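Model it.
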Amino acid sequence: MPPHPLPAPTPVVALTPEDQAAVRALARAAQEADGIRPLGERFLLGLDEADPASPHLLMRAEGGEPTAYGRVLDGAGELFVAPVARRQGIGTRVLAALAEQGTPAVWAHGDLPHARAFARANGWRRVRLLHKMSRPLLPDDDAEIALPQGFSLRSFTPGDEDAWLAVNGRAFADHPEQGRVTRADLDRLLAQPWFDPAGLLLLVDGATGDLAGSHWTKVDPQERAPGTDGRATAAGEVYVVAVDPAYHGRGLAVPLTAAGLAHLARRGLRAVVLYVDGDNDRALRTYRRLGFTDLEVHAQYRRVPAAAKMEP
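Modeled.
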């Protein structure tokens, strides 16, 4: 226990460039220590945001350098503590500050044993799982894709933003994160170094010219997953697959998914990853039939009555 009570984290509307760099450096140190990134993509991309309704939370050492970070976005919080500053009560203070901001949930990337113990000790219980799955890309994956009659694929071009947002919003209307993507969010993603318009495949209804769906593939230079020999290799990602609900039942999802895999295979990648919610039984069964297996499992925790039905 520290000799004096720890101060509360400092809420900061806008991080300085120096603090942004410091938080990214701490995140890299945490990833090296734990084997998994401590913050999700939305949180990392949002380090340069200034939003009074969603301030950044910083804990600092006596010298002023950050030792822990937390924030609430899209109704859920994330936090991490620098490896050298753990087991001092800092994480508990940041978690309490997130709760005071009204967040009902926090994410634990990788759902590591120490994160589970920390959550339980503070009265939070696991309520949601997010699977990161992977499989090798095989020679057959780059075969030509047969689309249903009347549909065609093309790559994203400037001017497609509003149509993509509309389809994405309808396809993920009930999803707590993907269903909230805004034009500002999309513009930030399109500006990322990894973005390749050729990898954002748009499915077009030839009869109307309307966008029926899309498969956004992603190639992050740091992404790795097991290849055919079981060793880690550069991997692409099935980033977002969306089919407009108006086109459900027309056999579009499978060829649209296959088209994205073919694009990644033709880029020379030898593995692919994707994310899927643990309660999406249909998608989990489909991906497992396609050879995907769990690479990581992320968990969301909520402060709820202990008697509520959830994991033991």
